[in-house]
Design goal:
Helix content of chain B: over 70%
Shape of chain B: globular
Mean pLDDT of chain B: 88
CATH topology of the largest domain in chain A: Rossmann fold
Shape of chain A: elongated
CATH topology of chain B: ABC transporter involved in vitamin B12 uptake, BtuC
Radius of gyration of chain B: 19 Å
Number of domains of chain A: 2
Strand order of the largest sheet of chain A: 7-6-8-9-10-14-15
Largest sheet of chain B: 2 strands, antiparallel
Number of domains of chain B: 1
Distance between the termini of chain B: 53 Å
Largest interface: A-B, 31 and 38 residues
CATH architecture of chain B: Orthogonal Bundle
Strand content of chain A: 15-25%
Structural class of chain A: alpha/beta
Radius of gyration of chain A: 23 Å
Oligomer: heterodimer
Order of helices and strands of chain B: HHHHEHHHHEHHH
Number of strands of chain B: 2
CATH class of the largest domain in chain A: Alpha Beta
Structural class of chain B: mainly alpha
Largest sheet of chain A: 7 strands, mixed
Number of strands of chain A: 15
Strand order of the largest sheet of chain B: 1-2
CATH class of chain B: Mainly Alpha
Order of helices and strands of chain A: HEHEHEHEHEHEHEHEHEHEHHHEEEEE
């Protein structure tokens, strides 16, 4: 029975797709075709489906107000199930349907597979969720943009903050040997080493998570004469290390990540948490556009939005805004508009840098002051 | 040289943390040759009990030393009750069963207690107040060793001496030694073996609870899982020193603490556990019964 439903769904979806195609081709000059690609089925569907809803909400609003440059926007929705091989299929399919611009894909692997194909045809692609750093930084895909910070953004911010704001030279980089913590620490180490002599990694070590005591590592930090510690990992280890450092009367700066920007950290470390720095996603809870977008989702779909909803909302807005400002869907004009025109989104006011990463999105530095994390100015 | 001293002291405190837990392991093993995996959980329950008592007493506005003593006392009583009950429920019915059955029962008890605390309390880390004050006379040395570490070190030594005296010089100790050598013979000469075993469990639980309060206060946080991790390390320490021997457990803990501390300090903390276990393997190759363990004659 389940299979049957699945089959029917596929047939229905392909019918819809064909309907879109025929609709699209017959009025080729009168619509803007926005591709929405990502995982809409399978294990990772929960990452992809919210982006479809976000795109629908934005496009409905725009169409209700008369479209862009007099043209209505239609959505071409395609499912890649987060699989790279399907990602390239979807890209080919969208191109043959005459897509103008793509919002997607969701997973980094599928995005990368699809990008090569979009690049050939000069189609701009913007992902709400692909965080793999080389997608933008390698420079291989000038047609790629994203409305999410890349994996190394936190490490970048931590290192820049330590070197430029705190003005420290000697930095100890620690991690908890986990994927998340070690990945971050490796980026941090690399950024410090490439800082042109501004900073120096005096210690690079992994600590054992869950150990009863970290005094040996703390002594090692002390001996390395590090002025700041950058820690990649989660709050239980961070609070133990900070507490032991402070109990050993060390005032070394402690900078960590969003695994530590957690209220439990402050609760557990208590007075020793004071002054600790941690990066965390920029706060959007007070952004009126974010509140409005969430409310609209609740009204239309009767549920709270899922993962990456706001990122997808912002991506759709940014793309359509660029098309509007460029006056056409021509590659060069839209690229320029993305890089020069600020746009108000639920994630804040954004535009894109030369590599395609969003300026104004990402992480902010927080510091514990009087028992709460407060954003500190850069 | 300073650095060496710091690492040495760091290893010593880490070792004394292990020792407080290892003492209970080794005592129980010495008497009934059972690896009591639930021992780490008793330590965890001790810490949780203390935290609850502390929260209540702090609200009543008592001073910290009084709170520490009362909380420690209640934690000890509570943990002893748990140790006693665990023995009666999980081990006593299996006394005549093969040793493997009792071992599996112990693992089951450990899992049960962990999940019981997880459900009854929380899975989050809870802050544990720092009850051991920073002594003013310790301030010049605070950068090397903290007051809490000194307190743990002294407590471990006292507990070790008390246990050794108890086993060597009291009537109960004599009964314990007799039971550990031959249960049936001990019964024949009129020793209440069940009572001796109960007392052993109660004593072991008491040391675990003391450890729980002091270590939690030093580390500053607890959750339901702390008993498992600390228990594994303490078990290794007990084996290293020669399981069944009280001074051996303490020595083994110190050796383990130093190995970890020096490995971290001079090599890398990435390999802390690797060094600890390589050391364990080496010791067991050359001294299969542990550093202070006596090779037992097994009657066939």
């Amino acid at each position: 029975m389940k299979k049957k439903i699945g089959k029917n769904l596929i047939i229905a979806m392909s019918l819809i797709f064909f309907a879109c195609c025929t609709f699209g081709t017959s009025f080729a000059q009168d619509v803007i075709k926005l591709g929405v690609a990502g995982a809409h089925s399978g294990d990772l569907a929960s990452y992809g489906l919210p982006s479809v809803k976000a795109a629908e909400l934005v496009v409905n609003d725009i169409n209700a107000m008369g479209g862009i440059n007099g043209k209505k926007v239609v959505l071409l929705i395609e499912d890649d199930a987060c699989k790279p091989e399907l990602g390239s299929n979807v890209a080919t399919k969208l191109l043959s349907a005459g897509v103008d611009i793509v919002m997607g894909h969701i997973c980094s692997g599928a995005t990368k597979a699809a990008l090569a194909i979009y690049k050939e045809e000069n189609i701009i692609c913007m992902s709400p969720s692909a965080t793999n750093p080389p997608l933008t930084q390698s420079g291989d895909y000038p047609n790629f943009y994203r409305t999410i910070a890349s994996d190394d953004a936190q490490a970048r911010l931590e290192v820049d903050y330590a070197l430029d704001v705190l003005k420290v030279k000697k930095i100890a980089v620690l991690h908890d040997k986990g994927d998340y913590g070690k990945g971050l620490a490796e980026f941090a180490k690399q950024f410090i080493e490439n800082s042109g002599g501004k900073g120096q990694v005096v210690l690079y070590e992994g600590v054992t998570p869950g150990a009863v005591d970290y005094s040996a590592v703390v002594q090692k930090i002390k001996r390395s004469k590090a002025e700041a510690v950058i820690f990649g990992g989660y709050h239980p280890e961070a609070s133990k290390i900070v507490m032991q450092m402070r109990k050993k009367r060390m005032n070394t700066y402690f900078i960590s990540d969003d695994g530590v920007k957690d209220d439990t950290f402050i609760k557990v470390a208590g007075k020793y948490a004071e002054g600790v720095y941690a990066t965390g996603p920029m706060d959007t809870s007070n952004n009126p556009l974010a509140i409005a977008a969430t409310e609209k989702h609740q009204k239309t779909y009767g549920a709270d939005p899922g993962a990456f909803f706001l990122n997808a909302y912002a991506a759709t807005q940014a793309l359509l805004n660029a098309v509007d400002k460029a006056g056409s869907t021509e590659y060069q004009a839209v690229s320029n508009a993305l890089k020069t025109e600020w746009v108000e989104t639920p994630l804040g006011r954004i535009k894109f840098d030369d590599k395609g990463d969003a300026i104004g999105i990402g992480f902010a530095m927080y510091q514990v002051k009087d028992g709460v994390y407060v954003e500190v100015s850069k | 040289m300073d650095y060496f001293l710091e690492l040495f002291l760091g290893g010593l405190t880490r070792g004394s943390i292990y020792a407080l837990i290892a003492l209970g392991y080794t005592m129980v093993y010495g008497i009934i040759e059972l690896i009591n995996f639930a021992h780490g959980e008793i330590y965890m329950i001790g810490a949780f009990t203390a935290l609850i008592v502390i929260s209540v007493l702090t609200m009543m506005g008592m001073n910290t030393i009084a709170i520490l003593v009362i909380a420690g006392f209640i934690a000890v009583i509570y943990s002893c009750a748990y140790g006693y009950t665990v023995e009666k429920i999980a081990y006593k019915p299996l006394r005549r069963a093969p040793r493997l059955s009792a071992l599996i029962s112990a693992i089951g008890m450990s899992l049960f207690l962990q999940n019981y605390v997880l459900l009854a309390q929380t899975s989050d880390f809870l802050p544990f107040p720092n009850l051991i004050p920073d002594f003013t006379f310790m301030e010049p040395y605070a950068h090397i060793i903290s007051s809490a570490e000194v307190v743990i070190l002294i407590t471990t030594t006292i507990v070790m001496i008390l246990l050794t005296v108890l086993i060597k010089f009291t009537k109960m100790g004599k009964a314990m030694r007799a039971t550990s050598q031959d249960k049936d013979m001990a019964r024949l000469v009129g020793i209440d073996v069940d009572r001796v075993i109960s007392v052993t469990f109660v004593l072991g639980s008491a040391t675990a609870a003391i450890g729980g309060v002091l270590i939690a206060s030093h580390v500053g946080m607890i959750n339901f899982y702390i008993g498992f991790i600390a228990g594994i390390k303490a078990f290794v320490a007990a084996v290293l020193g020669g399981i069944g021997s009280i001074p051996g457990a303490v020595l083994g803990s110190f050796v383990l603490g130093w190995t970890e501390s020096f490995a971290t300090g001079y090599v890398s903390s990435d390999y802390e556990d690797v060094f600890a276990f390589v050391f364990l393997v080496l010791i067991l190759i050359f001294r299969p019964a542990g550093i202070l363990g006596r090779t037992e004659k097994h009657t066939v």
